[in-house]
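Sample A.
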Amino acid sequence: LVVDGGPEDRLEVRTILSEHGFDVEEARDGEEALRRIGQAGAPPVVVLDRDLPDMDARQVLARLRSEAAA
């Protein structure tokens, strides 16, 4: 899962990972990433931009950890 507010940045990371055989999903902000993970489960890898439009990476990680512990 690539989480980045910039469409160009998401495309660049998607292209690199896809060229190496990875199936890539995208989210444009922290809420979308959390929603996707809540619906489909945690992916093996999350590439998370530090500064997202709606929250920073630490906030996303804290919510993921608290939801995983619940």
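Sample B, a different protein:
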Amino acid sequence: IDRSRIVESSIGALIGQSEESCRSRHFEVNFLGEEGTGTGPQREYFAVASKKFVCEDYGLFGLSSGTRVYHPLAGDFGMFAFGRLLGLAIRHQSLVDVKFSRAFLRMIVGGKLELEMLEEIEPDLYRNLCALKGHQDHEAMDLDFTILTDYQPSKQKVELMENGENIKVDSTNIEKYVELYILYKLRDGAKKLMDRLLHGFFEVVPKPAIRIFSDQELDLLLCGLPKIDVDDWRRCQGEQLCETSQLSLWFWEFVCSKEEAERALLLKFCTGSSVSPSVGFENLPGLSSICRFTLACTQEAGDDRLPTASTCFNLLKIPDYSSKEILEERFHVALHYGSEGFSF
């Protein structure tokens, strides 16, 4: 995978695989020009690629300004490949770095959409539509059963029901109008897009296997826990290799002092993924099985050395620093200039 063109490179790699190979137990990611192999690059790939796929440059998803969740738009560039990517992430127990709308997740598991789901995606529109139902004079608003799409490159008028352009909204059908309007926003406006995504997704994960889950459970499978539980992280360490207990204490004090964004960078540096596993740190996946996070003290002393990590083994190696301040400074450099990629 070419990191500098990760979406285009991913599309070529993902659509070039047969359905049989996508369901294979073997899956490996290698970044062009980088030495890393194994589960570390794999976990980082799913996090980085998923985030790039949903950015506005590709027109696949829109980001809600309020709740900061992603929901499909009407673009189709690479949607089949993105469906395969999401399926592969689940199949190989990796997490994506995207927060999807409940409506999107509900469509994957095949559940019924609820009108209230629009509030998460377009809160102002949802409130306006609810207020519209309480309006006294619907005829004066001169509405019909059509919607003007806001998708590029051009706006189009779409009928919400057969002959909708000739059906005026009044007090007898306002409830139906609002329902169809919301369903168009949640589902029908992006139907072709979702069909392509689901085609790719179900080629990797069979439909019966995923439809036993709720949308909340799928959210955990794809995205992990919303916050990093430092207590759980520390409690679920593997064998403690650090001979200097003071160094271990400084490290966990450093972790506790950081905001969520910094903790995510640190977790990514150590494991390849910036998101907490949905099953907790006790079940942190490694190269071929569960591999708990381990803190190790390198034999070399030296305040000028940076911490390093073996992400396939969730192993963090810290030089024997002389003070907590030095530890914090060196981690700052490592996290902000070496948390992505596998060649420092």
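Observation for Sample B: The longest strand covers residues 294-297.
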